[in-house]
From TrEMBL:
Organism superkingdom: Eukaryota
Keywords associated with the record: Endoplasmic reticulum, Glycoprotein, Glycosidase, Hydrolase, Signal
Molecular-function annotations in GO: alpha-1,4-glucosidase activity; carbohydrate binding; Glc2Man9GlcNAc2 oligosaccharide glucosidase activity; glucan 1,3-alpha-glucosidase activity
Protein name: alpha-glucosidase
Organism the protein comes from: Moelleriella libera RCEF 2490
Family: Belongs to the glycosyl hydrolase 31 family.
Pathway the protein acts in: Glycan metabolism; N-glycan metabolism
Catalytic activity: Hydrolysis of terminal, non-reducing (1->4)-linked alpha-D-glucose residues with release of alpha-D-glucose
PANTHER family assigned: ALPHA-GLUCOSIDASE (PTHR22762), BCDNA.GH04962 (PTHR22762:SF54)
EC number: 3.2.1.20
N-terminal signal peptide: 1-29
InterPro entries, per the entry: Gal_mutarotase_sf_dom, GH, Glyco_hydro_31_AS, Glyco_hydro_31_C, Glyco_hydro_31_N_dom, Glyco_hydro_31_TIM, Glyco_hydro_b
Length: 974
């Protein structure tokens, strides 16, 4: 008895100690030495050394990988063969390769290792791990787009190479060089991407460990390649085990890395591979002025107070890289769930025929993954839109969001009680500050036992939820993947008794430290674990939660305080006996997925869209919810860094992204708060969040004029919610980023490619550049085209010139926003307390007339809650101004009469266009009335015309218009 009490007390002390250590660590900046550099990661170091070796001997070097010509076959869009790797001792290792040409025009190259495939290998240390290279990443990541292009044709083949044409009209071509194995991907006869052109392909084959007495670790045992003209022996020191920060990885399968060079021929800039801080146009990584010294790393990790402008890994990984040059975009998606490093080098390219005397550059990349098969998808564009769409076809598009989640989220670690939550809710109303969601961080639980409530501070969660509901508001609660290991907690006892947790290398349940102290981790690779997880979220099971409760998944990298690099040991075992090293980067996605499944089945018959925020992510996570950029700091530099990070998420297929508004660590000054809310108002996911040690900073706490500034900013966000929702719709439909960088919207304007501090919001034509510097009250916005640009706040017409910058004033209460001529965007202008309260408000349309007198835009709306949109229950309008007629038509030409309206569509019958503001209005509108036609009736509506003056555009306000938003209508402007 005494001893149980003592051990419990010791446990509590240990918990406090662990938390203190963590908080203390949080208070200082990132500890570089806690995270590996390439030369501290065996396989990265080996492959970089291999590349250096190869480069040093490039004139005499030949890659040891050859295709056996006789092994090649082609059927139904798939080319298969065997690659042989020849080793010093004459041994030949077989690697089956498949090149799949997909109907979408994407090519897929997969290489496996025969011996491991056939399980003809021995594991060390009596390991129970799987013997194969991990090949199941696709089961988690790929959801479509795999149909083969049966029209693809081998157009040439002999003993040295084969050439296959594929894609529409055979405009794409892959040339397979046999000896050595190299691939060239061409579009309309021109090579854009090369694989193994530099000979860095390195598939570390399985070999037994041979204990050689007296031999140093640096021997070249069985591995030096026959064709490799090098005397340098390979460094075996990290083949069989590897230590870092006091932890040893037992590596039962020995070295298994897969690495290859991928060159983007004639492309000087590459983008993507989040999550990192730094510019969207990626830097070189092999040193030199302005370059990094380290490769970009992808190994999802809980990095405290991360560094800015760094290739260091962060919480999520999307190994999708895009290369852009004027009028051409291509890309590669490297489907590996293992730790991956990517080196980037740009070389002058004299050979490129397109250079026409100009020195062009090519970008050469080197991808290095620790384990698994080689699996790469090649996209040949030619537009950024093609890449986004095809990538989305494979990995899925952004889920249509819960409508409230596009509003403003109020969070901190932590609202201390249910009364505190209710009080914040009341005060937001008192100050007329719109918000939709209040969040609860880990302290709401009873001693960090998820699915429970602290009995003292959150004694009445239902009362709290009901008050929020009465105000149309939602609650988000955090649930992490670590489960406190204690006997009196049924979630823990069930997890253990049902054997649903991650195991250690010995096959025992893995135990580590996180917020609750000693914990176990649910293994969401296990289908039974997902089934069990679902049961925990049912209303009758997670007591205290209501229909307005949604979810936050944090620490799912997973974060393990006492684990190597704050995560799990790589030799831990998951369902299917896969080692953690094989699946690490998709671990977060699997937890997010289990939570999605759980939230989608809280109650039988209830079909509502889950909203789940995740910190860790991988390609495909966009199907499941939103992400945020983790633990940033309340500094101007972090504010600035958030914009490129969010833009990068957008072009990398996961656009529902935000950063902690205000900054997580520290206490932001008031002007920083003002500017951060203004930037946050243009994050797809807008949530204020703060560390437990920071001072309270709800918008009403700031005092005037700042509370008013924040309120005004939030109203701006809310008035544009219909435009935001429409932007989400496009992300859902074709993968378009919600906020868009210039390289994506204007792929012909080279001078805009690397601009990553300004953005277009969806299709609105709103060009926004938040101020991210202290004491700055104007900014220079780069103008991408020859259209007219008008200040959103003042209607001043800016004196712009394509590809030049224009100065825009922005006092502390203003966000620099320009309206591009030719755009029409929807708004809802009545200030309300929440998105829910605005659901059936009338719309305002803003028409910004182009130089040629035209304009166009769109609106998408649905119930923002269920999946009825998939059954046609939505409104999708195209607005067009041409020849002085402004029209609204059904965007897809659907026959609306054939759609039986459900509850939401019926209610929308009474939602109308209130006002139409025409900016840069034609002089023909200088009159009192104009004619509106709809539903077979014509009526006159009032026009208020304001002539242009002192640089301000002419504008006209038409209204009240009164036509139904869901019906066709037209207005004669002249
Ligand atoms: C780490 C998250 O990044 C942070 O947002 C959260 O407040 C803490 N975990 C506590 O849950």
């Amino acid at each position: 008895m005494w001893s149980t009490r003592w051990s419990r007390r010791r446990m509590i002390l240990l918990c406090i100690w662990a938390t203190l250590v963590f908080l203390l660590q949080s208070a200082v900046s990132v500890k570089e030495h806690d995270f590996k550099k390439c030369d501290q990661s065996g396989f990265c170091k080996r492959n970089r050394a291999y590349a250096d070796d190869v480069s040093a001997q490039s004139s005499i070097w030949t890659s040891p990988y050859d295709i056996i010509p006789e092994s090649a076959s082609f059927k139904d869009g798939q080319w298969q063969a065997v690659i042989i790797k020849t080793i010093n001792n004459g041994e030949r290792v077989r690697f089956p390769v498949t090149i799949s040409l997909l109907k979408s025009g994407v090519a897929r190259v997969s290489v496996d290792e025969e011996k491991r495939q056939k399980k003809e290998i021995e594991l060390r240390h009596n390991s129970k791990a799987r013997k194969e290279r991990y090949n199941e990443a696709q089961d988690w990541v790929i959801v479509g787009g795999l149909d083969l292009d049966k029209q693809a044709q081998v157009v040439f083949t002999d003993k040295s190479h084969a050439s296959i044409k594929y894609g529409d009209d055979g405009k794409f071509e892959v040339v397979i060089h046999f000896s050595p194995f190299e691939l060239e991907f061409r579009r309309n006869g021109e090579t854009h991407i090369k694989f193994n052109d530099r000979g860095f392909l390195n598939l570390e084959h399985w070999r037994p460990k041979i204990e050689k007495e007296g031999e140093s670790a640096g021997s070249d045992e069985g591995n030096a390649d026959a064709k490799r003209k090098t005397n340098g022996a390979e460094d075996e020191s990290t083949w069989w085990d590897e230590s870092f920060g006091g932890a040893t990885d037992s590596k039962p399968r020995g070295p298994e890395s897969v690495a290859m060079d991928i060159s983007f021929v004639g492309y000087e800039q590459v983008f993507g591979i989040p999550e990192h801080t730094g510019p969207i146009s990626l830097r070189q990584t092999r040193g030199g002025d302005g370059n990094h010294n380290e490769p970009y790393r992808l190994y999802n990790t809980d990095v405290f107070e991360y560094e800015l402008d760094s290739p260091m890994t962060l919480y999520g990984a999307i190994p999708f890289m895009q290369a852009h040059r004027k009028d051409s975009s291509v890309g590669v998606f490297w489907l590996s769930a293992a730790e991956t490093w990517v080196d980037i080098v740009k070389e002058k390219d004299s050979k490129n025929p397109l250079s026409l005397g100009k020195t062009s550059k090519s970008t050469q990349t080197h991808w290095i993954s620790e384990s698994g098969i080689l699996d790469a998808f090649v996209f040949l564009g030619p537009t950024p839109q093609d890449l986004t769409k095809k990538y989305g076809e494979l990995t899925g598009y952004t889920a249509m969001p819960q409508e409230f989640s596009v509003g403003y989220h109020q969070c901190r670690w932590n609202y201390i009680s249910d009364d505190d939550v209710k009080d914040v809710d009341r005060r937001m109303d008192k100050y007329k500050i719109p918000y939709d969601v209040i969040w609860l961080d880990i302290e709401y639980t009873d001693e960090k036992k998820y699915f429970t409530w602290d009995p003292h501070s959150f004694a009445d969660p239902v009362g709290m939820g009901e008050q929020l509901d009465a105000h149309g508001r939602k609650l988000v609660v955090i649930i992490d993947p670590h489960i406190k290991k204690v006997d009196d907690y049924s979630v823990s006892t069930n997890l253990l008794s049902k054997d649903l947790a991650v195991h250690n290398k010995e096959g025992e349940i893995y135990e580590g430290w996180c917020w609750p102290g000693s914990s176990n981790w649910i293994d969401c690779f296990n289908p039974k674990a997902i089934e069990w997880w679902k049961t925990l979220f049912r209303y009758d099971s997670f007591k205290g939660t209501l229909a307005n409760t949604f979810l936050w998944n944090d620490m799912n990298e997973p974060s393990v305080f006492n684990g190597p690099e704050t995560t799990m040991p790589k030799d831990n075992l998951h369902f299917g006996q896969w080692e953690h090293r094989d699946i690490h980067n998709i671990n977060g996605l699997t937890f997010h997925n289990a939570s999605w499944e759980a939230m989608a089945s809280r109650k039988k018959g209830e079909r509502r869209r889950p909203f789940i925020l995740t910190r860790s992510f991988y390609a495909g996570s966009q199907r499941l919810g939103a992400m945020w950029t983790g633990d940033n700091q309340a500094t101007w530099e972090h504010l600035a860094a958030s914009i490129p990070m969010i833009l990068n998420q957008g072009i990398s297929g996961f656009p529902f992204a935000g950063a902690d508004v205000g900054g997580f660590f520290g206490n932001p000054e008031k002007d920083l708060m003002a500017r951060w809310y203004q930037a946050g108002a243009f994050y797809p996911f807008m949530r204020a969040h703060a560390h437990i040690d920071s001072r309270r900073r709800e918008p009403y706490m700031l005092g005037e004029p700042y509370t008013e500034i924040l309120t005004k900013t939030l109203r701006l966000r809310y008035s544009l919610l219909p435009a935001w929702y429409t932007a989400f719709f496009y992300a859902n439909r074709d993968g378009s980023p919600i906020v868009r960088p210039m390289v994506w919207t204007h792929p012909s304007e080279e001078s805009g490619f690397s601009i990553d501090d300004q953005l277009f919001l969806g299709t609105t034509g709103l060009l926004v550049k938040p101020i991210v510097e202290k004491d700055k009250f104007s900014t220079d916005i780069w103008i991408p085209d020859d259209e007219i640009y008008i200040d959103y706040n003042t209607y001043q017409v800016l004196k712009t010139q394509k590809a030049k910058r224009v100065t825009v004033e922005a006092a502390i209460d203003a966000v620099p926003i320009l309206m591009r001529g030719g755009s029409i965007f929807p708004r809802r202008d009545i200030p309300r307390r929440s998105a829910a309260a605005m659901r059936f408000d009338d719309y305002t349309l803003v028409v910004v007339v182009a130089k040629d007198g035209s304009a166009e835009g769109d609106l998408y709306a649905d119930d923002g809650d269920t999946f009825d949109n998939e059954k046609g229950q939505y409104i999708y309008r195209k607005f067009r101004l041409a020849d002085n007629v402004l029209q609204s038509t059904e965007a897809e030409g659907r026959d609306l009469k054939s759609i039986k309206p459900g509850e939401w569509l019926q209610a929308m019958r009474e939602v109308r266009v209130d006002r139409i503001t025409i900016v840069n209005a034609p002089a023909s509108l200088d009159r009192k009335e104009c004619q509106v036609q709809s539903e077979g009736r014509a009526q006159s509506v009032k026009v208020e015309y304001h002539a242009a003056e002192k640089g301000r555009a002419a504008f006209a306000v038409i209204g009240r218009v009164g036509v139904r938003i869901g019906e066709d209508w037209s207005i004669q402007l002249a």
